Automatic annotation (TrEMBL):
The keyword Transferase applies. Residues 176-197 have a biased composition (Basic and acidic residues). This is Acetyltransferase, GNAT family. Keywords: Acyltransferase, Transferase.
Amino acid sequence: MPPSNPRPTIDIEPAARGDLDALADMWVRLARDQRTYGSAIRADANRETMRETLAAHQVNDGLLVARLGGRGARAGTATATATGTETDSIVGFVSFSIERGSLDLDTTRGLLSNIYVDPAYRDRGIGAALLEAAEDALAERGADVMLLEVMADNEAARRFYRRQGYDSFRVTMGRPLEERDDRGDRSENDTHSKEDG
């Protein structure tokens, strides 16, 4: 837990190339946590792949960090405060992009890939500041809406997103294939397309 020193500023700023290892480590912690809610992603096994993915986001200006005692936020970014020491440490990050699909849509959608705040710095507005900064960046690039996914059992995350104004858009359903003996009522509507926008 951060010491109770004066409340320093948390700057939301673009990630630097030198931040990628620390961000990959944070992503591993995020992925481990998501396994609690049913995620099948193997955190440690995917660290290097995610480091490369985060590097691509960084190159495309889609990777922001929450930096304690930051190096100076870019103009117009959100800021938050937290109790901690004046250091140059990353306490959270967000990655995002504009959706690039093969179908023509009547809206431009931004996609939130990952958002993470170190547990010691949660409930201080940092996640909301990261989310707002991602929304602002995507709006500047022409996005009309931002989409994100959250594990159905992660009620804390769902509550956070609802407080930020997010509503359910699409529901992903799954079932173990070993349980195929009970197929349910087949007379229901079976119309569906993953590509329906």
